[in-house]
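Purpose: get a first structural picture of the assembly so the mutagenesis plan has something to point at.
Setup: two entries, given in the order below. No constraints added.
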Amino acid sequence: MKSPFSSYPTTRREFLQRSGQGLGLLAFSSVAPRFLTESAAAQAPMPEKDRSILVLVQLAGGNDGLNTVIPYQDDQYYRLRPRLGIKATDGIHKLNDTLALNPACTDMARLYKEGNLSIVQNVGYPNPNRSHFRSSEIWETASNSEEFLSTGWLGRFFDNACPGSPETSDSPDPAAVHISGQTPQAFLSQDPHNLFGVDLRNRNSGNTNPRQRSLLEGFDGGMEENNLSFLQHTMMDALVAQDRIQSILSRYRPKASYPGNSLGQSLRRVAGLIAAGMETRVYFVSHTGYDTHANQPGTHSRLMRELSASLAAFQKDLVAHKLDDQVLTMTFSEFGRRPSENASIGTDHGTAAPLFVMGKAIRSPLVGQSPDLNVKQNQDLTHSTDFRQVYSTILQKWLDTDPKPVLGTTWSPLPFLA
Amino acid sequence: MSGSNVSAALKDFRPEEAWKPLPPDQFDNKAAIHLLRRLGFSARPEWVAEVQKAGPDKTVKAMLQRPEKLPLPRAIADLNNTQRYLQIRQSRSPEERQEIQRNLRRDNLQAMADYGVDWLTFARDEDNSPQEKMVMFLQDIFVVNLQKIRNAEALYNHQQLMRLYINRPYTDLVKAVSKSPAMIQFLDLNQNQKGKPNENFARELMELFTLGEGNYTEEDIKEVARAFTGYKGQGATFRIQRNQVDTGKKTIFGKKDDFTGDEVIDWIFEQPAALTFLPREFCKYYIAEEAIPDSYLRSLGYKWRLHQFRPMELARIALSSRLFYHPAFRGNLIKSPTQFYLGLLQELRLDLTPIPQTVGGALRNMGQPFYNPPNVRGWVGGKTWINSSTLAARRQTVQTLFNPINLDRLNADDYLAVMTADVNGRGNFWVTEDLIRQLAKMDSIQIAGHLTEHFIGADTPDSFKADLITFIDEAPSGGRNQRVRDALMTILQSPPYHLC
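Result (structure tokens, whole complex):
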């Protein structure tokens, strides 16, 4: 669609080039977005573009770890799950003499064998909480079970690693992008950072109507620097990011075929934004439906197939764009499920579970101890790796940041990254 | 330069004139709307004429002099904390003890979520909005949060104090807060013993509640701390432990006496800085983000002192004043997320959706999670409410109010809460197609006039209205209702709507 706003610059470089040609800042609007005026005035150097990128995949609802990474030689597993247990003859993908991936995880098994996927086993935290809401909060804020933090672990990473607020930042690109309805708690920070949410259903697209756009920009509050013009600037920064992101996404031609489910479509968008050279360092996508209290087999099998195919398509796309050495992808879920199946052919909220880390940088495919299944009926697993060890490893070895100020205490790193 | 608005406005008044009542003939329709938006969360159209007739003085009095109590939320009444503390003490094994503690924490947290819904529903009621905004203001001074205080009953009682003391002397409120178990735990007053003082409370008493930084010495803090020894707050109960009380002589602000805690608070209030402290906080919250000079605050403080330092009287004097109605102070305050949310519901005539996750999540994303300010200073407010993320969350909140609730996705508790609200006549949770159809019956010029006047203000520039008219007129065929709906939504998302 042609609108007066399609002439917005979509990259900072493009903008600087154009203004160099004499187009001028104010050609775009009566009030230029703050980042444009300030960065142009300061003639800031281009930020480096080849920084590492983290993609978080949330498996919302509590993924059943035992039916994801299956201990197919353990009699205890089949004792606890007479109906739900997945048998060696069901087409499982054996990883070694004791463990196998869910039959629906064909692509992930291949990535594992190729050394691009690592499984961190039995991840959790002490005094586990079984509420979806609270346990997600614990994971996203990286708190202790009894501790309430108002900032997320990635928010604190931005606070520590990206000094300055959006007003002083010289990049039009958001620090973090989420493709989910709400801002992830993991992104909440002390200082303001430019965060952006992409709506998968694309409901915001109506705003590209030029008239609606100018309504959203409001009106000039007069000559003086007042709150109305401050709101206007902030809104315009957000709208510019939105224009840029929508323009990138509409032009993106992936080099892999993504499945049509919401996770696949979310990751397709993430790949598009990364391929466009956005300076965003963290992406967050969500895959929902893991709360399998009843009739689990069909649902869980579908979820595993979607997860596996989507991750594989994403990785393939990154490889084809030669971006795979720049991106690390990690899954997490608020908890695993109880080892004992329930009476409705499902599983109830549990504790520890495995998670996946994917990328070219992966070193060790299998990390940590398998869970001890010698548990009583309806007893829960005891975690052997703390989720903050995973965060700490990623912060230090992938995001090049000292984990201590982000996580508060020191956690021993894990060997999935060199 | 920021601050230029305020300094320009102040040129029009000398300090002693600024707080004189606005002449009645200047209290017009726009001024009445200004008062209602600042006093509560929005200007209810039916009230404007009445308020204009009554004048600001009577209006503030009517809204604040007899605050309504917030009924104890059922979730908190059902907690049975005291019984469970007893069980913890009687537990036979560490495991049993941990199990009870875990459940206790979980249930208190759940009760806080339900309390949040109860409070927001209460505050959304226009009759209660002014007093609840004042409660928010006072809570932002006497900060405690659920991050540290896990006892829902203690937190509820603490908030109720703010309400009960709106029209009683501020000194009495400070005394009550010094005995509030939530505050005692929040500022470690339990650890304050004779011979082993903990200065946390004493410091914040003077820095954050009464005088402000720089108006006391470290020596004063030490001596003040001694006067609050023996104050104990366990769970939701206060008591004084006699054998820990330091009854000796203390020297505070140059006076040597055997001060009790209450006597210290009275003595603090005879210090000059006490005259300007609450007025300064009040002006920042209700009038302008930028600082108003001390000479003006002192003049307001003198007037306030004549009325026993009652917060209601401070509001009455300030919100009836010439200064408050100066053009520089109109429509230039950024709404807090709570005001934005509750004001939206009021202006759209909607009820609060009684689902803890929905409302809790919206407030959290906009930057003001219920009863959980980030630290002892509370929320800073003003420009810090706004960044691209919180602005997106505000836009998202507007969108949510234009879409039906998906009943299939609710759990049993939430479903029941929604159904109960509906049965009780509080079931208008979203903007219906019907309302849009009504609106769409008007022509685009009328719609633009109606929407801008109602949601932004009578002095909306013509260019903005023209954009609105064109936007509606350019609707694709068959899509006019949808366009009107989008127009309404866009206005509620646009910059001027975030101001009051």
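Chain B touches chain A through 55 residues (CB under 8 Å).
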